[in-house]
Write a structure and sequence with these properties.
- By secondary structure, the protein is of the alpha+beta class.
- The protein has a single domain, classed as Surface-adhesin protein E (Lipocalin, Beta Barrel).
- It is about 15% helix and about 40% strand.
- Strands 1, 2, 3, 4, 5, 6, 7 and 8 form an 8-stranded antiparallel beta sheet that branches.
- A hairpin with a 3-residue loop joins strand 6 and strand 7.
Amino acid sequence: MRTILSVVLLLAAAPAWADWVKVTETTDTVYYLDPASISDKGEFRRVSVIQDYATQEPGGTRSRRVSYEIDCAGERLRSVAATEHSEPMAQGKRLNSWERESEWLYVAPRTGTSIPPRTPYRPILRFVCSR
């Protein structure tokens, strides 16, 4: 009985980020998303993404949790809210937060744009739009 109780307590104490899925990484940032956070908002989808930085950013930011709105048909996304944290995986002290819609970022190569074809946002869009 003690063994079962110990296992249950251990599982209950598991980190909150245990369900986050690594979707891509760059030389200095790893991107995770929470599949359970994917939701439909009219013609768009929303998802929570953690950007985990290899080194501390100016102002002490070590990670950022961003809510993205995704237009699957238009292959674009924009941030709608974010929080910056002092520790990896959106843990530690909350350093900053905001709610505002950014400009749309097209993740597929487009004629006449300066967006490189390989952005870290493309795997996020593909993951969310495949669900």
